Amino acid sequence: MEGTFPMKELINLRNLELLDLSKNQFVGPVPDLANFHNLQGLDMSDNKFSGSNKGLCQLKNLRELDLSQNKFTGQFPQCFDSLTQLQVLDISSNNFNGTVPSLIRNLDSVEYLALSDNEFKGFFSLELIANLSKLKVFKLSSRSNLLRLKKLSSLQPKFQLSVIELQNCNLENVPSFIQHQKDLHVINLSNNKLTGVFPYWLLEKYPNLRVLLLQNNSLTMLELPRLLNHTLQILDLSANNFDQRLPENIGKVLPNIRHLNLSNNGFQWILPSSFGEMKDIKFLDLSHNNFSGSLPMKFLIGCSSLHTLKLSYNKFFGQIFPKQTNFGSLVVLIANNNLFTGIADGLRNVQSLGVLDLSNNYLQGVIPSWFGGFFFAYLFLSNNLLEGTLPSTLFSKPTFKILDLSGNKFSGNLPSHFTGMDMSLLYLNDNEFSGTIPSTLIKDVLVLDLRNNKLSGTIPHFVKNEFILSLLLRGNTLTGHIPTDLCGLRSIRILDLANNRLKGSIPTCLNNVSFGRRLNYEVNGDKLPFEINDDEEFAVYSRLLVLPRQYSPDYTGVLMFNVEFASKSRYDSYTQESFNFMFGLDLSSNELSGDIPKELGDLQRIRALNLSHNSLSGLIPQSFSNLTDIESIDLSFNLLRGPIPQDLSKLDYMVVFNVSYNNLSGSIPSHGKFSTLDETNFIGNLLLCGSAINRSCDDNSTTEFLESDDQSGDEETTIDMEIFYWSLAATYGVTWITFIVFLCFDSPWRRVWFHFVDAFISLFKCV
């Protein structure tokens, strides 16, 4: 539901005790609830509420209040200290600023207090909460990076916490008050400045500790306790400065770990075989380290519960899963950017795989035929050394969302169809595919990338697809005309037909293509459709509201996709959000002829237009001044004539405007973005003038009549005819002068000529 909340619908519910408005799209100020004296629970989380919330201070019987994930700003109202019966207060993920509100010291009944993810700054003293004897959960963090915890070494608070979260508080050491806690279950000190040795004493002191989050700090040495820890289930040490080998006993010390994240460090050497003793582990992230060697067999056999395995950006080598594994539950395997050389049969038994990323390795040979037996949703094998033809069964799985086989040596014909799920992304570029493009290949795709292959024939009359966003056919040997069927791809954002052998004129109907005019939806990174169900809920401190778990690990992970396109004189990759703002048309390096259609000026949201290296003639359309979002226009190496329209100087976002090597004339616009362009954008046009090329327009005798589009054609015709007549007269005169001079000299040729004349006269007299 959206809009302001309709309070008139609830005006008669005077005995209301619980009101849950969460996870909607309500906007505006907090509803006036002053007459709801019996209200005990109010959940307004995950909306777009803003403005004043002081009206809530009148709800004296309120016990649980959740205002998280809204757009509240300013300082938190001081009047909330009158809500003395509050047991749950969550104001996290808003824009509250200033210092942490001192009123919290008066909330004697509070058990759950979440102030995280706001804009608080200054010093926070634990004295504010030291006397809150019932407090069990305390969460504090700030996006401003200006919040600091005041050091109080002698503080002994009255509370005994189960959950402590102090993120982005500029901590350099573990706060001393934590040592006075006896039964911590969750400790989150991530995004701070902790240094030195990993505080393994936390594992020894708290026998019930289940979650320890220390990511994004500056810890340098990983030491583990000698005794086993049977309770810790989630440990995140990612993005620190560890650079040594992992302790050999890591699997023995943490046998019941379920979620282990060691990514973005500098861990070296091979994986300890003790990883195989983590029988319950479901999520393991070792990416972005310096691990090397092959995967230990004890690990491949022992971790039977593993669901997600991330090995990317390391130096693992050999075959991936050289022997049979015991990964019967593995759904996500991401091992890109390593040194793997082959796909072994050990992978064949992992039939649960839905996501496989082996891109940017050194894989050789062909894709095994048994790959067709998997029900992949995402398969990435790009930038390897794979070759041969593709198994036909690979393209018939309805589960596919992304298939990336680019940057290999695959050959043969393209599949006649691709059965994807909910419109898919298909990357077959930079291979050696040959033959024609099947017209049905486009049917179920959002992105079709066939660049840089050996495809031939004409662009087919594609089947109707109103949802395709990107069609990339650059760098093949396609011939024939640009089919008008492409004008029916109404949702297209990027159309790249460059570097082919296309002929004929540019279809005028291309203005029917949206290039951003009709945006039905945005393209975001796709989340993995697989989750881990943890039956063991962490305790929450609420009797009325549904509060989040103390810690919910994110197992989804956003899968990024990219589209490459040439713009602003360079080749860029557009991923996720940036793709939502890119609209481009590239027809360069073909054999196109005729005029540039004025209808292209209707593509008002297009950002890149490249028509260079063709044989286009005529004038630059005046309608190009309507391309208000354009950043790059390349019309170089054509046969264009006439002036550059002066109105193009109004294009505020234009960075590239290249018209070199044409037959343009007249003055170059000097205002707007044209003042930043140098002469390289205009060379090869002898009749152009202006400050950009240091050629004064006063020296050009034809400037005045070349400025007008309507008269330029006639006047150029007049100039050509005058030159023709003068050339004819000069030739006639030179011929007669040469003949007369020839007669003035005594020579055998002269006598032959006069003898011929005498004979002709005698013959004439006889007649």
Automatic annotation (TrEMBL):
<keyword id="KW-1133">Transmembrane helix</keyword>
<protein>
    <submittedName>
        <fullName>Receptor like protein 9</fullName>
    </submittedName>
</protein>
<dbReference type="GO" id="GO:0005886">
    <property type="term" value="C:plasma membrane"/>
</dbReference>
<keyword id="KW-0675">Receptor</keyword>
<dbReference type="InterPro" id="IPR051502">
    <property type="entry name" value="RLP_Defense_Trigger"/>
</dbReference>
<keyword id="KW-0677">Repeat</keyword>
<dbReference type="Pfam" id="PF00560">
    <property type="entry name" value="LRR_1"/>
</dbReference>
<keyword id="KW-0812">Transmembrane</keyword>
<dbReference type="InterPro" id="IPR001611">
    <property type="entry name" value="Leu-rich_rpt"/>
</dbReference>
<keyword id="KW-1003">Cell membrane</keyword>
<comment type="similarity">
    <text>Belongs to the RLP family.</text>
</comment>
<keyword id="KW-0433">Leucine-rich repeat</keyword>
<feature type="transmembrane region" description="Helical">
    <location>
        <begin position="723"/>
        <end position="745"/>
    </location>
</feature>
<dbReference type="InterPro" id="IPR003591">
    <property type="entry name" value="Leu-rich_rpt_typical-subtyp"/>
</dbReference>
<keyword id="KW-0472">Membrane</keyword>
<keyword id="KW-0325">Glycoprotein</keyword>
<dbReference type="Pfam" id="PF13855">
    <property type="entry name" value="LRR_8"/>
</dbReference>
<dbReference type="InterPro" id="IPR032675">
    <property type="entry name" value="LRR_dom_sf"/>
</dbReference>
